[in-house]
Structure formats: structure tokens, C-alpha cells
Amino acid sequence: MISKLARCIREYKWAAILSPVCMVGEVYMETLIPLVLSNVVDQGVQAGNISAVVKYGLILALYAMISLAFGVASAFFASYAATGFSRNLRRDMYYKVQTFDFSNIDKFSASSIVTRLTSDVAIIQMAFQMMIRMAIRCPMMLILATFNAYSISPELCVIYCIVLPLLFAGLLILMRCVHPIFDRVFKTYDKLNNVVQENVHGIRVVKSFVREQREKEKFSSVSDEIYRDFCKAERIMSFNNPLMQLAIYTCIIVISYMGASMVVASGNDAAAGLTTGQLTSMFTYTTQILTSLMMLSMVFVMITMSRAPARRTSEILTEEPHLANPKMPVTEVPDGSIDFENVSFRYSREADRNALEHINLHIASGMTVGILGGTGSSKSTLVQLIPRLYDATEGTVRVGGIDVRDYDMEVLRNQVSMVLQKNVLFSGTIKDNLRWGNPNATDEELVHACKLACADEFIQGFPDRYDTYIEQGGSNVSGGQKQRLCIARALLKKPQILILDDSTSAVDTHTDAMIRKAFREEIPGTTKIIIAQRVSSVEDADLILVMDGGRIVGQGTHQELLESCSIYQEVYQSQMKGGDE
Hints:
alpha/beta, Rossmann fold, six-stranded mixed beta sheet, four-stranded antiparallel beta sheet, 19 helices, about 10% strand
């Protein structure tokens, strides 16, 4: 996990190295200041020597300025390295998500991926910045301050040897208690993100059913869960400061008593025992040692908080797509023929049953194929195997007579154009959205594709026509308009195979018929697969498939199915009765 995240430092490695180097310089100068201060007291104030006070005072100011310069440089390099690291990490995660196939996306929910890319990365950034600064500063301060204190008075340093292990043990217990809570909190963040995403995405449904109060309660429930966990963690961590203060004041009291006794016994003679200036330095070192330990505990808290986000982000980075190109991929699709040879499919190994069972099918290039079936009959699952959005669990799917697993996936998907059941438009102009199908398409090609999809007529009604801006998700166009724009976008790819997955459900029957007529006349060589709920959408197809429970229960022309397939007869009769009424 650590090595995977460390690769994201890359070009900011030099800044990540310079920050702790400068921090070492800052700490070294800080630990020299108490020694100089003892000379100010002993050789200047105690001796009444003004020149010594000025001399050591100037040295003190110089050390402080050098320490400040090192500190500023360390802070700059740390922030530069941390922000660059988080940028690389976020970019690597996003690029990795782009390589995922549908099964990988099914494993990570959309809300979880968003949380990992945002709040998780932000926490890791703060932890990384703290590690290359405070995680270096605290141990260095602890070591150098203890060494200098020991050089002044080994007897008084015994106090540190007693207090520090006890304090460290207490902090370790706090960390062990807090870690499981933080681990749970970040999983709850996924739930919160999911609630917000669902609400915003379905706000029209929420308002039409007057369910705002219910959505507020759902949000409050998850938000309160995060609140309770954080409160519990904070209550545990609240013992950190009293524990630290107890250690600091205990050391100060004991050092004051023992140190004062030693100063009196030695008559302020350094050779005989301890001087007033040295005792003053011991107080400063006590504060430095214990404060550094307190800051080290904050580093531990941050590391504890970041363990769960670090694990979650590394899961994205280490996840490998289940689908991959073969070593010697086929780079050309000969034609639009499709063959299913004893194909079965299930979405995961843990699934109770197959989504598709023993599919055997041959579709010649250029045919128009209609697919009918009830909800959950696996119509969409069947066509998703053609562009290799999923791999068949058993059997073989061939396009152009070649196993789809032998193709370069980009080549295959460029020749199999799908208009999905959930139509998606992106923010930008109509032209921008259409050119997803072909980035180099001319304006004439855009218009031609839109005419085939019966979209040109409503586009011309917009004031800006093809430069009309589409809001995020296509919220400023109707469902039927969105479907027609998506069909035009698919046509611009000029594919060998065109799949319409219930993508004319929101258009009227007259427009639906015009689109199908345009397909027959303008792209006769393209294999067309139309998934529909209306018999009228597929009745003139060369082949109609009737699916039920993941199986093909009937296939043939419209007339053949009316004579042989009971399911098709029921659907046809129910829809025709509705038409008669």
C-alpha cells in the first residue's frame, strides 16, 4: 500500500526530501538556543557583564533567525510536495478508473469512488505533509534536546527516562482505541455521499412525490452517525492533552525541586554541579522534549486517520481491469455478423444463477434484429457481450467471425456503437456532444446524422441551433430529444453494428417509424439490433428474438412468431387492444 502511494510523489521527490532536511536544520538551531540562553544568564546576568549579555544576545538572535529561515523553507517544500503528491494521486486514481470495465465499476459504487477521489485524498495529503515535517521534527527534537539535557545534567535526565515511556504507552493506548472508529467513519462517508448523489440526481422525483422530509431524515441519519463516531473519537483523544500536561508539569516540578537543590549545593558552580542558567536551559529542554512528544502523538492521530483512506485509495490503484487486450490483437472488424455459441453469463461468481443461459444465435451482417422481452429478461445483458463490455462466462461471442476476446477492444468498440438504455449527455454544446461519436466530423456530417435520428427538426428550433448549450445530464432537453441526440452521436461513428437499447422509448410512434425507415434506406449495410417494448418498433425486422428468464424462447419474423410464440402473441394482442381502444 505504502509503495503504491509513494509512486505518486514522482517529480516532487526533491521537495519531499528538502523539507525534512530543512526541518533538521531548524530543530538543530532551536536546541542550541537554550545553551546560549544559559550563557546569557550565567556569564552575563549573574556576573553583571553587559558585554557578555550583548554578545550572547546577538548569537541568540542569529540562531533564531537561522531557525526561522529553515522553518519557512521546510514549510514551503512540504506544502509544495504534499499538494503535488495529492494532484498525482488524484490523477492516477481517475486515470485508473477510466481503464475499469463494467465489472470493476460494479465493485466500487460511484459514491465511493467520488469519496476516495475527494475527501480521502485530502486527508492523505494532510497526513503526508505532516509526515515530512512533524514526523521528522518530533523525533529529532526529542533526540537532540535529550542529548543536550543529558550533557548538562545526567541526574536530571533520569526523570525523562521514567516519564517518557509511561507517556508513550498512554498515547499508544489512545491510538489503538481511536483507529477502529476512524476506519468506520470513512465507510459512513460513502453512505453520506450516496444519499446526496441520489437526492440531487433524482430531485425531480423527490419533489413530485413530496418526499423532501424523508430525504432530510435519510441525510440526518447518516450525518448523525458520522457525528456520533467523531464525538466518540474526540472524547477518547481529549485525554491526550491532559496526559501531556500532567507529564510536562510533573517533570517541571521534579526538575525544579532537584535542580534548585543542586544549584544551592554547588553554589552556582558548573564544575561542582548545576548553575542557574543551566537549570533554566533544563526547563526549556523539558518543554521541547515533552512538546515534541505531544506533537508526535498528533502525527500518530493523523496517520491513524489516514490509514483507512490510504487503504481505500490503494484499492483503486491496485485494482486491475478484468478485461484486457490479447498479446496479438486483431485490429480490423471484417463485417457486422454476430454469433453466440452456447453462451452463458453471470455478473459475478457469487451470483445465484446465470443471467444468460445457453444462447445460440447467428445474425448475418446487415440484418435488422429486434429483441423483445419483459423486465429482467436479460435483453441488455445479451447485447453488452457484443462490444465486450463483459466477457461471457461460458461459450463464445464472435463478431465478423472472430472471437471478441481476440480483438483490440478500442477497435471493436469503435465498430459496435451502442445507444444505452440510460441516455447520457455531457455539459457542452450540441456539437460537442455529437462529436463524441466522431471528433473530426464536419458540420454537414453532424446535420446528416441528426436528420437520420430525426433530431435536426427540434435542433433548428433552438435559437443557437447546433451551438445550443446542453446542461449537465441534458436537463434542458426532453427525454425524447435526448434519445435522438444519442442516436445521432452513435451514427457518427459509422459502425458495423448499431445497438439501440430501448433508446426510442421516449419518442412517439411516428418518429420511431421515421428513424427505422431512415436506417433501412441510409445504412443498409450496418447490422442493427433494436431492443424495444413496442411490437411496432421491431415488427418489420429481419429477425425478432423473444427473451424470457435469460433465454431465447422464440425467434423468427413477425408473422412466424405470431403463429408459434405464445409470449409474442400475448404482447402483440395486449398492445393492439390498447391501440384499438
